[in-house]
Here is the input.
Amino acid sequence: MVKTSDLRIALFTGNYNYVRDGANQALNRLVGYLLRQGAAVRVYSPVVDEPAFPPTGDLVNVPNFPIPARSEYRFPIGLSARVRRDLAEFAPNVVHIASPDTSSHRAVTWARKRGIPVLASVHTRFETYLRYYHLGFFEPVIEAILRRLYRRCDALVAPSESMAQVLRSQRMNYDIDIWSRGVDRDIFHPGRRDLEWRRALGIADHEVAVGFLGRLVMEKGLDVFSDAIDDLSRRGVPHKVLVVGEGPARQWFETRLPDAVFTGFQGGVDLARAVASMDVFFNPSITETFGNVTLEAMACRLPVVAADATGSESLVLDGTTGRLIRPGAVHAFAEALRAYIEQPALRNAHGAAGEQRSIEFSWDRINQVVADTYVRLIRQHGVPRP
Here is the structure.
């Protein structure tokens, strides 16, 4: 009988620790959990001289190049002879791919030739990114490439049931488990709210701060966010905007929101302080498959106004913990924000309900789902499906 401690996992990802985001932090938490359970894990990912944070576990560099116009990201381009030797010596009994790049394609081929089961985790709706670069017509091609990769895997894990339904409808695979996301409640909680910190930024105690948290890139819905804020201003609704994050679109965002407060990157307890010091969290993005930032905001007792898309619809209970709005509906977003700005009782009630809902998300319980999926695939591998 295979146990978690018997696992030998080769994990392939395009970004494990060189740029911080919710996906790679989830992967590092998973690896940490697996190592504590006695499993062996080896991570294959691009390595840079100055990563955003230290990696959890053993990290092996794979051939890669900087992505044009987004040089902070690296694109893995396959498995070198050195990597193949390392893989053979490690002798995994399961392969996990976490990004649909060339190295992952090669890793799937390598595993299938050796009868090793493969699990793919889906962290981002890559096909939707093209819309933000006026290349939406190319989406069917990307979907076809993703389908070819994911159907060669034995199973997928998705961070929410809504994302799993999208994957099924796209015919990516039909064996899909839910690997949700957790929140560190020792860090993210309402007690992190800091009025002195707000005042130092020029936000008065009586002002309602509409918050944005995330990497400042267009695919996070920065255009919709700024358009909705413009709508509030035209209506004469008093508010402040607090933007937490860094990225290549910061200058564009600052130009669009000249009265907003930009804090830059925040991490750890500083990040929790920034989130808890907001009053309403606004997340119009449609590219996330789960929405870690939404869960962190809920843990800090903030009502959430979010796009009714895969990133938030499994977290936000519309009319109870926040509002889910049709993607891109600028006026509807603005109206939902106006209600929270002008009605403190509503803001407090939905924020408290969101905090209660966030308690359901425990990291260890969530990560054990992935470990159980590894064990199941090893047990089932080689048994013909009906």
